[in-house]
Amino acid sequence: MNRIDIPRKSIYRLSIYQRCLSRLRENDVDTVSSEALAKAAGVKSTQLRKDLTYFGQFGTRGLGYNVDALAKTISEVLGQNHLQPVILIGVGNLGSALLRYGGFRKEGFDVVAAFDIAPKAQADLKIPILALETMPEFILKHQVKMAILTVPANSAQGVTNQIVDAGIQAILNFSPCVLDVPDQVVVNSVDLAVELENLSYFIR
Amino acid sequence: MNRIDIPRKSIYRLSIYQRCLSRLRENDVDTVSSEALAKAAGVKSTQLRKDLTYFGQFGTRGLGYNVDALAKTISEVLGQNHLQPVILIGVGNLGSALLRYGGFRKEGFDVVAAFDIAPKAQADLKIPILALETMPEFILKHQVKMAILTVPANSAQGVTNQIVDAGIQAILNFSPCVLDVPDQVVVNSVDLAVELENLSYFIR
DNA sequence: AATTGTGAATTGATTCACAGCT
DNA sequence: AGCTGTGAATCAATTCACAATT
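YS: structure for the whole thing
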């Protein structure tokens, strides 16, 4: 099974399984069946098992999965066995909110710096807010590969081109637009307005 | 074609097309081909056309789509022809960030109130922050059908049960957990950590 | 000539059904 | 006996190919 053939959705679900596993660990559960874990993750047990087989065999027939071992394996597969540096670009409302959010570190991501066209220090933030011009050098120097993009739609593509040139390989995009990137760069877009719009279709 | 048979992804893409159309309108473009619109939305033209046929025929062969007319049709399909009231629950870092964000109103959503277990007025916010106990009454009184959930994972299910009981039909969930809701309630989850984790798989 | 709309073909994802271990 | 792992079957989404229309 080639890395490239693995459905993106399966990889996505691995993160969800991971979260369920950490909750099990907190509760000192050491073994879990595909049935139970799948239920916690909101999927079918066959799907969970199929997802896992893309990466190997981790269970014991008749028994289930070892919680610790499976969590460790998934974190290796997802490449998050070490703290990953991330930068954030665009310190507007949403950007500064995310800086304050802090939920990333727990999951192995370290927001090391933020950039803005008009940087102004925010006393309550521990993260330095730097001028956009210094960004390429920073990326290079700190070997940053991931970026969170929270700039207005009209500057999103321009900034994207810059960060891709500087060596960014993965972008979490909150700007409400479609980004054009080279094949080797991966983008996950979260469009808050689109999520709400989509919901409004379903209410009657 | 039954409303229920329409792929959720098609409905989701409608919102994206909508955004591209408004940009075209701003630029006074009045006709667009499926090819051009699809490109702007980051999809194939056949997919765009297929998506639209779930709802009817809106184009002119040989010519393309009328930008205004298509935008109007999509907004009707999505049920966003009038301002939709929305409440936000959980005014922590992420919650207050979203309140400040303001990008929702432009898309036809009006965040009318926020609720928290320990409400404290935030001077810079125009939206009232109310006690959680007053929520059911508020939902009923203002006929609110949509909620944005930004509470910690451990209280998410409890709050969900409350708002569903009170009449909420659609939830945009930012809490990192799987919500259990009745069939007629629809949930869109945005898990920021999962999005980042997922990206980290792709960088090597 | 250009472009939509759509059945048919294809590709992809999920679920079934059960063989294989412990 | 219980539960995983997986090929086969099913179901769903996307793309193709082209007829229909302006």
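YS: worth flagging: The helical segments of chain A are 8-26, 34-41, 45-53, 67-77, 93-101, 135-142, 153-166, 192-202.
IM: good catch. Also Residues 3-77 of chain A form a domain with the Arc Repressor Mutant, subunit A fold (CATH 1.10.10.10).
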